[in-house]
Structure formats: C-alpha cells, structure tokens
Amino acid sequence: MIAVAPAGEDGCLDELTELLRTAGVAAVGELHQHRDRPHPNTYLGPGKLDELRGLLADADANLVACDDELSPRQERNLEQALGMPVIDRTAIILDIFAAHAHTAEGKLQVELAQLEYNLARMRGLWSHLERLGGGIGTRGPGETQIETDRRLARDRIAALKRRLAHVAGTRAVMRAERERAHLPQIALAGYTNAGKSTLLNALTGADVPVRDRLFHTLDPTTRVLRAGGRSYLVTDTVGFIRKLPHQLVDAFGATLQETRRADLVLHVVDASVDEDELESMTRAVDDVLREIAADAAAQLLVLAKADQLSEERRRELAHRHPDAVLVSAATGEGIGTLTERIEGEFERRLSSVELLVPYREGSRLAELHELAGDLEREDTPEGVRVLAKLPAGIAARFAPYALSRPAAAGG
Known about the structure:
- With 411 residues, this protein is α/β, with parallel strands linked by helices.
- The chain has 15 helices and 14 strands.
- The protein has 4 domains: 2-94, GTPase HflX, N-terminal domain (Rossmann fold); 101-163, no CATH class; 183-346, 3-Layer(aba) Sandwich (Rossmann fold), CATH 3.40.50; 350-408, 2-Layer Sandwich (Alpha-Beta Plaits), CATH 3.30.70.
- The protein is 45% helix and 19% strand.
- A 6-stranded mixed β-sheet has the order 6-7-5-8-9-10, with helices on both faces. It has a 4-stranded antiparallel β-sheet with strand order 12-13-11-14.
- The longest helix is centred in the middle third of the chain and has 37 residues, at 145-181.
C-alpha cells in the first residue's frame, strides 16, 4: 500500500487496509511519502519508487494499492516501473460496491460508475487494442479498436443513465405516495460500518442484514418507526467514506436523494474509535452531505456502539458532544432517549389545531388519528371536536374543519 501526503498530515493507511480486507486482499506492507503533491507521472518520486521495488521483492507482493485516485498516466507508468498490477482507491471501492450490489438498481449504478471510471483509462490499459478493426467493411481509415470501444462504452453509459432515470421515476412515484401520507421522514447518514443498519433494526424492529464490513448496505431500506402514537419513516442508505469517488456520488445520486429529502438526518458515528478518528469521520460525512445538498435538513448526532466504551470515554464524549445521544443498538441503551429526541425534533415543527369534523367524514377522522398520533376528541351534536398537533402542510389540508387558526406548538 502506498500513500502521498504533505508533511505534517496524517498518512495512516488503516482505512485502505480495511477496504482491501473487505475486497478479499491481504495487506503485507505500506510505504508513505511526504511531498506537497503526488508526482505527476509516477505518483511517488524516483527515490521512493526505488525503495518500493525493494519492499515488494522482500514481501513477495503481487499487487500495489494506492490510497488516492491515480491518473491513467500515473497508473500506467507505475505498472511499467514495478512490473505488477497497480490499483487505486477508487478501483477498490468500485470492486467492493460491485460485490455488494444485489438489487437491479444497485447493479446499474455500480456498472455506470465503473464504466465512467474506466472510460478515461482505455487508452492506457487497453493499448493492445490500438489497431484498426479487421474484417469486411473495416478496411481503410475506419475506426481504431480503441475508438470503437470508447464509443460502445459511451453508448452503454447513455443507456444506463436512461434506465436509472426510469428507476428514479419509479422511486419518485413511491416517494410521492409516502409524501401524500405526510409521514415525517428520517434518514440515517454516517460513515460506512458506523452501525446504521443495526440502529435501524433497533429503532423499528426490522431485520435488515448486518455485517461487520465496509459498504455492506448499498440500497436504501425504509422502515416505519412508531413513537408517541405517530409513525415515522426511517431510511438507511449507503455509508460514506473519506475521498468518496465522485463517480459513486454521481451514480448513486437517486439513492442519495433519500437523504436529501429527509426532514431529519440522524448522523450516526462509531463512538468506539478515538476522538481524532471520530472527528475525521464526522467531517467526511459532513463533506458528502454538502456535496449532495443534504446539509440543510436538521441533524441529530448519534454516538453508536456505547457498549464498547469505558466510563472515562463516556465522560469525554458527554463533554465534547453534549447535544449528542449515546446509544447501543446491541444492548438497547439509549434507544428510548433517541426516540424521545426524535419526537422532540418534530414536536417543535407542529401546529396546534382545533377542528370540528362531521360524523359523516369518518375517513378524515381515521386519517387524523394516523397523522397526529395522540389527540383529544369530544363528540358533540355537530360532529367530533378534535384538538391535535399537525405538521404545517397537513394542518392546511384540514383548514375547512378548523374552529381556530393554527398556532405554532408551544406558542
């Protein structure tokens, strides 16, 4: 494993090691170089390149993994200089995504990301195809094979984008159905392997598969949380990571919209890591949320895996993150407190309404019970008098039955 970082910056390769482990590759050594920017031709400088050759021979390695995305020229020159395959961080992540994609949409998204990543590398990696296509009808100037392959790749990319747009349309219809129900929407966001899926199970009673590996969850999973007589939709999506490849952000745009459209984002962090790592992971997630324009929604920091913490670490976290909720999905610790905080976040956005619903409007009464959860009702000769708290958009729908103008909760 190799990495280049400016002097004084963290060159830790623990994350790359974990990525390789998830991809089924064992790491046998690492090499760091401090320089302001990677060498434009070979990523490493000439001296470090010679040092790397010796390390590879001593370790009997058969692959070099780089912690950054390499340009096609850097990748080609490194392979020629080292005499073995070289893969970069983006290729490793794409390989993991390909292995973990199970739904039709997930597979389409991964294929799109892989094609866009490889398109720029065709000339360097497929130089043996740099020839005129043979056979009848191809004599003369014609297309070189590499140009043919690029054209076919672009056509495939266009076709994949059309298919994903169709899938996105289907997802939009499903989302519109949910929005018509006006159920509050919560998204779980966080670093990969932070414990989001386990938390989803603990909150909603779901049985989403959980594994201790990076990017185990790629496809969004939505379940219903019942709290205080009200229903909430909780969605778990793909985890984030430092230097998340832009191809993945683009390809998984439709999936990430679930985070962007949420009313509340639960930012789940693995509290069992040290404080520097926690802060680094938090920044990485915040960066991705900004990149996908999902940073406007209200956020609640959730410190997961509390069962792995010492008392000293608990006190430190309480001091450093006083507004966060400490939970353990494994033991149930803090789940009740988190549910109360979720209720409180939405409670502040509710409007108090007083309604008189005619008896013949039984379906509207049932709808009110579903949307408002706990409410007060009184049977009168004219109809059912209801006191409830509703989101502003829903309160407007019941305006014809209003006895008084909606008021903000607590006002």
